[in-house]
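Quick one: structure for this chain?
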Amino acid sequence: METTTRIEPQKMEAFLGRVLGDFGASLGVTLGFIGDKLGLYKAMAFAGPLSSEEVAERSGTNERYVREWLINQAAGGYIVYDEVLRKYILPDEHAVALTDENSPFNVAGGFQIMNAMNKAYERIEENFLTGEGMKWGEHHHNLFEGTERFFKPSYLGNIIDHWLPAITGIVDNLKTGITVADIGCGHGISTQIMAKAFPNSKFVGFDNHAPSIDKAREMGNKARLDNLEFEVSSAQDFKEKKYDLITFFDCLHDMGDPINALKHCRKMLNHGGVIMAVEPMAGQKIEENFNPVGRIYSGASVLCCTPNALATGGYALGTIASDKELEKVAKAAGFNHFRRATETPFNRVFEIKD
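Got it. Here's what it folds into:
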């Protein structure tokens, strides 16, 4: 097919360069996941210059595969090649980000998440045509495991020191002793962090994905926290008692019926109770999402969050819902007070109450 459109060579070259970069990044994510899973990064961490043979020996892998893996990682800037020694180095900063599970900089779980979401492409492609959804629990198990690993560093670094203190008066109440419901808790990392920090308060984590609750209970038992429990339940029907604080960590936008979820929360709050909703960072205008964070979150919205919402109720807020869209949902649920309490480069924290 011929075109009469005048092509500007420089613009075409720039665009093709961007596409080629994305091709390389896509392969790099897969190889990053392999490097994380097989311990290649850990084999290189703080070890100084290593040859492909040495990396293979230290990780128990095959050198012939490691050889090009190292070239790929150096081309992507993850590792450094010493031309004199003809060996590879994993910089200390990169080693922390890729191997230290408790560091606030750790990103290794992200490889696992991306790998899992990409596996759903055939189902999502079909959904583009039918408008149907895909439940969270229907994804590859790497999505659940990767989400735990990826969000844990941020939660460790922010929940106790930054996010909860931004909610009016809640830290003092938690120290004294209150009841807390953590909705959509997944493997329960957020619930466990709060329970450990505030032993006088009682915490219950709820999630509608039974295998995730099984994992949360297993991890909670190992932590030996007697103020912590987990139950399988949706946001629209969790029971047991009334609560002084209800939390949503990166999950309100996933819910197919967020208005009724918040309506139910309103019924379950004690007088003076409050909701803390942590949501992904997003712009107030569409164009404010045209950046690396917006690119990741909008992609996750298409492959994971929006499909779950469409499969479980049909009201798809999406991962990059604006403050106004979230406030609209809160007001529709009957709440009068809605404010952005604090933020990080990757998250917004909202205070919702009567």
